[in-house]
Amino acid sequence: MAPDMREVDAVIQRRLTSDVAMINQIAHYIIGAGGKRIRPMLVLLFSSALGFSGRERYELAATVEFIHTATLLHDDVVDESALRRGRQTANARFGNAASVLVGDFVYSRAFQMMVSVNSMRVLEVLADATNVIAEGEVLQLMNMHDPDLPVDDYLRVIRFKTAKLFEASARLGAVLADSAPELEESSAAYGRSLGTAFQLVDDLLDYEGATAQLGKNVGDDLREGKPTLPLLLAMERGTAAQRDVIRHAIQHGEVARLSEIVQIVRDTGALEATRAAARAEADKASRCLDLLRPSAHRVALLELCVRSVERSS
Ligand code: GRG
Is the CB of 168 under 6 A from ligand 1? Predict the structure, then answer.
């Protein structure tokens, strides 16, 4: 996909400019730090796999990356995060106000771009997705510091805040290709399951990963008192004493005992169980590709399912 991704990068660079110096500085700061570009990849892979090769696919691929970037700028302010993509976060470097406002710029630029492809259906998909993402973040805020959060409520948050944009990206590929409804739905279902698997691994890496490799600080979720699946499963499986340690940490956002908690999460098998849950979602995603004709793009989509689960960054 390298040549196609270069085209997407060219659109990103062209569309990122503004006459306002601070916008250029901060927007290029975060976009220039890279990222895996997985969401634009989904737009390209599905549109190509389904037979669409117009230039609109580059515009929409860049659009979903902009939406993702805006959510990161806002999320790092909300979470008071200090490290992202191996660099100081924009909020740590330029302040909260600048980060939120440049996030607004990137977000609204994404809307200018989606309008440019002249499709009401595209607007509908992205308007719905961004609305659900915002709902997911508010739900997550409501769930903070709650050690009794049911697993289904946790899964709802990750479907909203993360899987929805994966779903929209995959669906847009099918919309561009004017695919039959069942193909559009199976593409969207692939994105939903892949995005769920991806966030499960994201939550797992907050306990298992290494800061240097992740490019963000491990233990951030614990510091905020986020009840994610590794902790919920560790409480379900642990002894009463282990459960108390984790309950207390979630209630008080206690990062001082991170290494003890990592040990509990590991000893109870909660990390492996979280990865198994991610693997099951990724397998579900793979099965959504059954309707696609054989192609290099389909192979790449299958490969993404494996890599999203086995990744360490
Ligand atoms: C602006 C629509 C809008 C909403 C604001 C703050 C917020 C509401 C949403 C935040 C949603 C969020 C950050 C979800 C987490 C998604 C996630 C897994 C991020 C990390 O994605 P990667 O690993 O990052 O793809 P890179 O750096 O590779 O791009």
Answer: no
Q: 3-state class of 196 per DSSP?
A: helix
Which atom of ligand 1 is least distant from the CA of 84?
27
Burial 91-130 (b: 16+ CB within 10 A, else e): bbebeeebbbbbbebbbebbbebbeebebeebeebbeebb
Residues of the chain with pLDDT under 50: none
Asked if residue 161 has its Cβ within 6 Å of ligand 1, the reply is yes
CB of 85 closer than 6 angstroms to any ligand 1 atom: yes
For residue 75, give the ligand 1 atom closest to its CA: 6
What span, in angstroms and rounded, lies between the C-alpha atoms of 133 and 157?
A: 9
pLDDT tens-digit readout, 92-151 = 999 999 999 999 999 999 999 999 999 999 999 999 999 999 999 999 999 999 999 999
Can you give the pLDDT at residue 196? 98
- The CB of 71 under 6 Å from ligand 1? The reply is yes
C-beta pairs of 98-102 under 8 Å, 24+ apart in sequence = 98/22, 98/26, 99/26, 99/73, 99/74, 100/73, 100/74, 102/22, 102/23, 102/26, 102/27, 102/73
Q: What whole-number distance in Å separates Cα of residue 170 and Cα of residue 174?
A: 7
